[in-house]
Amino acid sequence: MNAKRELPAKENAIFKNILRNYEHKQYKKGLKLADTILKKFPEHGETLAMKGLFLNNLEKKEEGYEFVKKGLRYDLTSHICWHVFGLLYRSDKNYEEAAKCYTHALKYNKNDMQILRDFALLQTQMRHYDALIETRTQMLQQKPTNPPFWVGLAIAYQLVGKYDLAIQTLEAHESALREMPVNFEHSELLMYHNRLLEEKGDIQAALEHLNTIEPKVCDKRALKEKRAQFLLKLNRSEEAEKAYRQLISENPDSYAYIRGLIAVKGFDSGMKEDLSLHDLTAEQQSTMLGIFDDIQKDYPRSNAARNLPLNYAKGENFRNRADVYMQTALRKGVPSLFVDIKRLYTNAEKERIVEELVTGYAKSLEENGHFNEDGTQAIEPPTAYLWTLYFLAQHYDKQRKTDLALQTIDKAIEHTPTLVELYMTKGRILKHGGKIEAAARVMNEARELDLQDRFINSKSAKYYIRDDKIAEAEKILGLFTRPDAASPLQDLTDMQCMWFALEEGDSYQRQGKLGKALKRYHTVDKFFADYFDDQFDFHTYCLRKTTLRSYIDSLQFEDNLKSSAYYIRAANGAVKAYMTLADIPKTANGMDEANMTEAEKKKARNKARKAELKAQKDKENKPPKKEQVKEEAAPKKADVKKPTDEDPDGEKYLKTQDPLASALEWIHPLEQLAPKVIDTHLLGFEVYLRKGSLLLALKALVNSHKIDKNNGQVAKNVTRFKEAVKAHPPTNEDVKAVIESQLATIS
């Protein structure tokens, strides 16, 4: 032991109080106690480290790091000093350095439970699952009576795919819980055990286990769903049908339950999310539609039983079913009817039938007030005609018949000039027709019809941004942001409003303001980094509360976080902006040096430097404004810290030394998480080709060709790649052979 580490009894008791103060988050009190020890023992490393930790938690980060490093210099073999250093790095989200510190701490005290616990959380966050097993095992060996340690080890085994060991660990833990009363925690533990059996692939064992634990399970709905799924996978059709029919009786509007019943009847397509037309024989179609009819007969109010048959019915059968379904919705005035029906437009025949039906409704309602011209039905309410026109306008817009769509929606507005949805649809039609300015104006008219509606407020702002009128958009958004926020932009950023950041980024890119555009895209990237960091606290919480199935789902969700459409869109914009910077290299002060001589470059740099010094001097000598003097003279009511944006124009992104390297930082996550999105490979091709990485460019080209060989950009890229190879032929014969063989497959 370091001799300087030993403290007299009095100071040692104070140091223990310091540790307790940290656990209870009494940072100021702990800081005072640390100072009392340091007055007598200024070189006591562990106290210095704790003082640094308190300072860090009191938002004095730099000073905190100084004290912790000073403490380490005085006591390099103290596990407390290394642990504290790791906590500082962890608070800064620097997980790699924190892990190194924890490793050092365990060298000097391998059995410290708090260090092991923190290390396990860090390994989970970093996805170091093999090392996590070792840490969890060590924790369990020290405290085998702690339930979360058993569960934590089982989860660690599951995350590396060792399901047998995970099940053995849980069974050993459950053996001590046999006499426990029925409660949520025990129920979740048993259902998690069942999930492990399912993921292992032993469906029969999972079903038997499910039947065994049924009396102790609180989540009866999940248990019934799992039983139905297991019976279906085991081809026990009669029992599976009974299970799914029971589920349907509890929730007749569940699409998943109805699809499960269809799958039991031998129609695999029933389990698919793809709702396009399926190739069914007349007999199969009759059988499947009979299932829907039976459900609809038993549960007349089931919307799913009326909606799903539209995916499978054909010809006159489809016409009759669609006729009933749409008439009911139009009579009730369901605004989302077209959104529901347009999925059927992947089939040209169904699209034609829908158009014939709706145009017939419009004509008949206008002439005699009935849906059908025979007039056998009762007179429909006036709103039926309104919603029919609304549907028809969206139908024509989908077909990009802009003039006809505008005529129809104008007719609807003339019928009912106070309905917000009509103006919104008109704005959308104008947008699709390329009339962005008119679309923004109409969308604002819709907003003014209902000034208390946040959705239409946001929609109007979005259209103004599309028209590159960002100031007007932010003014409109300010109506619903916090009044005490520094600005609407700041409040929306604090609230992690991604659509707004993306729309502004795209707008600034259209205007050529690449710095501001990149700032918005990097803001979205920071949102995703925050989402990933926010899971840290749940590594402990979920084990303690035994919400294990949701915890595993959240880990899997976080692993694929950047496959989100929002991130892909941000990456698209950022990569294009960086490629623009790479194509037009500029200096930090914005001077284009591409066509300058060395003398001109030197002169331009000197001029820019002088201008920068003059601006700085003017800023320092500038007298304060009267309002500022008045504000400084007045007594301050409270020290309210408002966040200030030191780089509102995104200058730091423009000053990147290697724009293509910055672009690749966006592309690499997409290559791992969104490999089936063609934009991933189209952007990768552009960057790799500019960098001269022919093999990587070829790989991106081949991948984009596999996804969509008929894409026009892919064909252009093939030609560009051939020209690049011709201009800079590879010297390596193996590389040359690979390029030739791959080009032969896609040409």
TrEMBL record:
Q: Where is the composition biased (Basic and acidic residues)?
A: 609-654
What domain of life is recorded for the organism? Eukaryota
Spell out the residue ranges that the record assigns to TPR repeats: 79-112
Q: Does the keyword Repeat apply?
A: yes
One cellular-component annotation, GO? NatA complex
Q: Give the matching InterPro entries.
A: NatA_aux_su, TPR-like_helical_dom_sf, TPR_rpt
Region entry Disordered: which residue ranges? 596-654
Keywords, A to Z, come to: Repeat, TPR repeat
Quote the PANTHER family the UniProt record gives. Answer: N(ALPHA)-ACETYLTRANSFERASE 15_16, ISOFORM A (PTHR22767:SF2), N-TERMINAL ACETYLTRANSFERASE-RELATED (PTHR22767)
**What name does UniProt use for this protein?**
Uncharacterized protein
Q: Which organism is it from?
A: Mortierella isabellina
